[in-house]
Structures are given as structure tokens and as C-alpha cells.
Amino acid sequence: MAKAKLLLIEDDVTLVKMYQRKFESDDFEVEVAYDGLEGLDKAVNGKPDLVLLDIMLPKLDGLALFKKMRSQPSTFSTPVILLTNFGQEDAVFECFKLGAVDYLVKADVTPQQVVTKVENFLSEQKK
Q1: What is the pLDDT of residues 49-86, one digit of tens each?
Q2: What is the DSSP string of the chain?
């Protein structure tokens, strides 16, 4: 069975390394982008099975990136789970209106909980 391909768009290098290590140890293929423009390019060209998206990003914030993804046929239906901090409720609400499948507050979840959330979502998609 092919590995699920994730795109992690997050500007915190420590978090990226932690999540990347955890997802790869659980047999995911992980692509990483550290800013919104790089993330959009990798979402369009890399065709991930799922995107984990931070809201606060340099160059292009997560909400603007998500709007651009939804405006393009190649990424219109790509599932997105938001990774946020507190205080970003308005952006989260906007992303849900655009079709975000879930959101996680970074301070409240462990890497294992994020992996479990992604695995559960992807297994539901296959049904």
C-alpha cells in the first residue's frame, strides 16, 4: 500500500522536525513548507493527500493560502487540517467556511494525537 502523502505548512522549525519525525516513523511521506508561498506551490505541484496548515505564516498567511488552494482545480478538494494557536478563531471560522476538515490547537495536542487525527481522517476517506 502506498504511503499517505502529507504536506506540513508550518514556520516553527522545532515543531516541523518533531511532527515530521513522528509522521515518518508512522509510515507517512512528509513534505514540508516553512512559509505560505512555498506551501501553496507544494500543495499545487505535490498533490498531497492531506495538508496540515498553520494559520500564522510568513509571506502568505494560512487563510490566504487556503483561499488560493480552494480557487484552483488541482487543490480545490485537498483536505486541510488547521494547526493553530489561541486567538485565531476568526481565521479558523473562515477556513471552516472554505471546507477545512478539522483544527487542532498546537498547545493542546501531542504529535501522537495529531498523527491519530490524520490517520482517522484518511481511513474514513477510504470507506
Answers
A1: 999 999 899 999 988 999 999 999 999 999 999 988 86
A2: -PPPEEEEE-S-HHHHHHHHHHHHHTT-EEEEESSHHHHHHHHHHH--SEEEEESS-SSS-HHHHHHHHHTSTTTTT--EEEEE-TT-HHHHHHHHHHT--EEEEGGG--HHHHHHHHHHHHHHHH-
Containing structural domain, residue 41: 5-111
Q: Confirm whether 125 is domain-assigned.
A: no
Give residue 41's Cα distance to chain centre: 14
pLDDT, one tens digit per residue, over 103-125 is: 888 888 888 899 899 988 888 87
Give the CATH number for residue 40.
3.40.50.2300
Backbone angle region of 35, left / alpha / beta, with phi > 0 → left and psi within -120 to 50 → alpha: beta
**pTM higher than the cut 0.85:** yes
